[in-house]
Specification:
This protein is an all-beta fold. The protein is 0% helix and 47% strand. The strands form seven sheets. A four-stranded antiparallel β-sheet has the order 1-2-7-8, with no helix packed on it. The chain is globular and about 45 Å long. Its main location: cytoplasm.
Length: 359
Amino acid sequence: MVCARGPAGQAALALQQCSPVWHRRGNCGPRPSTAPSSPPRWPSAASGWCRSSWPELRPSSPAGKKRGLQALEARKTSVLQLMLQSGCPWPSLSWVSLSITELSVPVTQVSVPLRPPGAVELWELEENESLIVNKFCKYEHDDIVTSVSVLAGSSQAVSGGRDCCVKVWDIPEQTVLHSYRAHSDAVTCVASCPGKDTVFLSCAEDNRTLLWDTRCPKPATRIVCSACNYLPTSVMWHPQKSDIFVLGDESGTVALVDTKNPDSALSAAVHTQAITGFAFSAHSSPLLASISEDCSVAVLDSDLSEVFRNHSHRDFVKGLSWSPSDDALLTTVGWDHQVLHHTVPLPAGEASGINCVKE
């Protein structure tokens, strides 16, 4: 299950995928080499993190072993939107809204059975984000959908799947505008370009990263980055530089790539296993948070120097989101059923939006 949200925050695209037993489980032991009148107080953590309480997701229960927190988004309305998967080979999906101040108390929860692989669904948040409503479900991919990204302007989106296809969607019309098969293996990630509604990136298990512009007769251009020597697993555009994107591979390497000069990419060995996601902060000089199958969370500055690291997760880390109310707070979720809040050191000259009292 993956999702993306447009800038307005009104619609969520949910892509249905099976998570059968072929997913590897993490072994996270030692490894080699209505909005409130005032900003909400996030649950604090003396050690930089805190854990939510999920009585229905106890790891000791048989069902709990088949569940995992897959993605999240922190909302300005003091709500965390979480997505859970349970069961295999045909799991069910749950959308859960949690109060940031009371993580153990769901605001609302919607559970639906997952359909066969290849479905793309549109969900909307209604009634002050307390109600999650399904708007459509379309089968266009022939295999598991692995990634989705809403394009600039919020009227279109792009999806990628294990059928090697990349598809561009018209959200209001609920149709596919373009279908491409430029990859020869499963697409692992797609990412839209801020400010350019026809431009996006894709990477796949064919070891190729493609730059797309749907205005062109031949829309895909291969970006060769010598800094990443393993299969690419995650991509994301820089929020302030339309020619720069971040690329992560299955070895844990992170690279900042200039589309005009990819050979000059700045890279660093940040993790020891595959990168599973990125998120840029809202700082004037954005920090880059990365998560990985090595169960760690890292935050890097513009030079890819580490400013924060946390190893509290005990399984794959699968989702992350910066707080819209406090630039110093990063939230992560993983297959260990934990929701962790991390207090990240601020860059010089930056001020935190709220003060978090340690408990």
